[in-house]
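Colleagues,

For the teaching module next term, I've prepared a clean inverse folding example: a structure given as tokens, and then the sequence designed for it. I'd like students to try predicting residues themselves before seeing the answer, so please don't circulate the second half yet.
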């Protein structure tokens, strides 16, 4: 591995540490949820639950009096769903929202919190990481709007790796790589700083250690725990660093073309890394170390091979004719912090590579 020359740049940064309680323990979600509901003296709980997690949620909330169950969770939080959930919360005089499910359930709970100020306790069942960010997102007519607001940050996260075992291996891999994308994009996000970079690097290390175990033995709780802990660090890193080029691309692909969230992140990540790594040798070196590889791009490629990760936007159902529109939409929003200049042709090439599933060689010793 080639070490870059010593860095002599000056250092100045702003970092916010978000106030949040995190309870992490396999098989302990019901106990931790009960403790949190009591601690908050909540009397009227609204359970926002992904339909696939409905049975699990009823088991977890068995000892809690739930005022209302809300199970109409739709990906990317359509505005109409958010409005309906808010009305239900008001109608039932809810004092605490408990979400059980992936990023879509967490996202809906956040949408309720955004306008009502209600506290949220999040119980994630995927590796999406939304529970650890103050970012909300909603969609309407093919347009995704996002923002950050203190009110939407779940006050407590209850992590239980056993709840992620029911994810099929393919979804586990895609979701874990969504978390890896939080780590990688954090390395060059607009507010990237030593705190977010430290979290991102350790998050990537945990994900690279956990995901191969998940694939080899999906029931192995140790592998699931490392992946879930990595996903948490990834999300905290991402909140600190802010959204980079990768998230700009996926935001457009998910919002405008309705591609599945985790799989889209998994497909796009190697392309953004190959594009940026030669212009970001420090980030590439850190990532290579976390992946225990000679290079960041090759390390990620080897991990993808081992995991059987999804490779192409074509495979996710994006028609080739949509690529020019996607290029135009992304080009308007490219973050100024991106380590490499992005123009129309380079972005079009990157997206075509992601569509076809062919990574363009990034080059450079650390790549
Ligand atoms: P998801 O919540 O939409 O879940 C995907 C599918 O998996 C659904 O069908 C769901 O029912 C199922 N599922 C969830 N957990 C399962 C489990 N344990 N076992 C079996 N099936 C399970 O997908 P996601 O990738 O977790 O979240 C995507 C959404 O989260 C997007 O809307 C995205 O924008 C948002 N998100 C937001 C942030 C943020 O910081 N605001 C971060 C990450 C993701």
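(Answer key — instructors only)
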């Amino acid at each position: 591995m080639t070490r870059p020359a010593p860095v002599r740049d000056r250092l100045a940064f702003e970092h916010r540490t978000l106030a949040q309680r995190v309870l992490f323990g396999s098989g302990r979600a019901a106990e931790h949820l009960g403790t949190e509901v009591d601690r908050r003296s909540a009397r009227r709980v609204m359970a926002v639950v992904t339909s696939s997690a409905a049975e699990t949620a009823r088991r977890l909330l068995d000892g809690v009096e739930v005022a209302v169950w809300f199970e109409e969770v739709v990906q990317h939080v359509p505005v109409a769903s958010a409005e309906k959930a808010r009305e239900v919360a008001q109608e039932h005089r809810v004092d605490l929202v408990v979400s059980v499910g992936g990023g879509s359930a967490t996202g809906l709970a956040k949408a309720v919190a955004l306008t009502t100020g209600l506290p949220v306790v999040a119980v994630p069942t995927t590796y999406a990481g939304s529970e650890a960010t103050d970012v909300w997102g909603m969609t309407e007519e093919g347009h995704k709007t996002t923002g950050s607001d203190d009110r939407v940050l779940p006050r407590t996260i209850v992590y239980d790796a056993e709840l992620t075992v029911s994810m099929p291996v393919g979804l586990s891999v895609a979701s874990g790589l969504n978390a890896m994308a939080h780590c990688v994009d954090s390395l060059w996000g607009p507010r990237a700083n030593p705190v977010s970079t430290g979290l991102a690097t350790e998050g990537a290390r945990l994900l690279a250690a956990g995901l191969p175990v998940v694939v080899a033995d999906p029931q192995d709780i140790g592998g699931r725990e490392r992946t879930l802990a990595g996903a948490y660090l990834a999300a905290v890193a991402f909140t600190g660093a802010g959204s980079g080029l990768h998230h700009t691309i996926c935001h457009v692909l998910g919002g405008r073309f309705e591609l599945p969230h985790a799989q889209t992140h998994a497909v796009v990540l190697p392309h953004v890394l190959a594009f940026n790594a030669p212009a970001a040798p420090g980030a590439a070196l850190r990532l290579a170390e976390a992946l225990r590889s000679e290079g960041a791009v090759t390390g990620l490629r080897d991990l993808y091979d081992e995991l059987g990760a999804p490779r192409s936007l074509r495979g996710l159902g994006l028609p080739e004719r949509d690529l020019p529109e996607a290029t135009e939409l992304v080009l308007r929003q490219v973050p100024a912090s991106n380590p490499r200049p992005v123009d129309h042709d380079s972005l079009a090439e990157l997206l075509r590579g992601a569509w076809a599933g062919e990574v363009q060689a990034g080059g450079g010793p650390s790549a």
